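Cross-posting from the modeling subforum.

Setting up a comparison between two proteins and wanted a second pair of eyes on the formatting. Protein 1 (sequence, then structure tokens):
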Amino acid sequence: MNKVMRIARKRTVLFAFALGFSVLLAGIASASDLTFSEFELMSKAADAYLSSGKSPNITAQDLFNVLNDGDSSNDPFVLSVRGASQYAKGHIAGAINVPWREVAKQENLDKLPKDRQIVVYCYTGHTASQVTALLNILGYDAINLKFGMTSWTRDTDIAPGRYQEVKDAKDYPYVAGDDPGIW
């Protein structure tokens, strides 16, 4: 499989994931509940985001630097999508909290700026990356904090859920090369 085909497949998978996630957040039972024009609109928005070349992540160091450079005019809007209790234990200064399952509600979308970059973070970056994709598809300028709060602080009370190689890493077989392989 050539590079172009791998990129196209990756975009298709990412789009399907983003569409499914946005459908879930919007409270629609399934993609089949969408009209063709709604699906086509979402498809175009997803393709525009995925083909933009925009980096989906910002590092904790880069975010810290921009927040502390003495120029508040370039500060992003910071959105925590963690649970309220974790947010209350500790969060990035200036961040607002909207739990991830509530982000797509209109009253919460109305809180987000359309004219300013939004840095989205969670515990490890996984959930926030999904919310980031959704927000970009909806027309916001969002970016994910790579590795979430686990990259912002070492305090495990504030940032639980760290990757532990001994516990989390497996040694399952894998296939190298362009052939997808079989089980």
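Protein 2 (same layout):
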Amino acid sequence: MADTVAPTAKKQEIVDRAYRLFYEGGFHATGVDAVMADTGISKRTLYKYFPSKELLIEAVLARYGDAVEETLYGPAFARTDDPRGRIRALFDVRREAMDTHSCQGCLAMKAAGEYAGKHDGITAIGVRSSLYIEQRFADLCREAGLADPGLRGRQINLLFQGAVLTSQARGNTETFDAAKQALELFL
């Protein structure tokens, strides 16, 4: 039971390595052998902590959720206290991360796409991730005093996710320019 509260160093090492490899190569294309290669960690140890690849993916997605708080919301909210400014800053911070290749899109949405119809738990994490971001935008819209903040949050999330996915597909972040122009219509 202690592993669920305070992960061991080995367990964290497995999650960190899998996080990087799944992000770079995808979930289906990256096998547990690749995750374990050159680590000195046995498959037995891997399966001690994660009896299935899907449980490892769920742990990776939990780590990703923490990373989003640290690398997206933290920097964006540090730029301004103004709710409208924070919405704009979220677009800017995500674009900057994609420009420096520290972000390659939403890992949770990638997982949901790869596991749609194959694993309900992983798909649900991707859906929750999208809804979480939508809710954060709605909260900012509410703080800004915008009409119908739930709808606005959903619309802004669509712009945001669309900019991320299109940038990913095209290999550049120019789409954020159009997204930021459209964003002003909602603010």
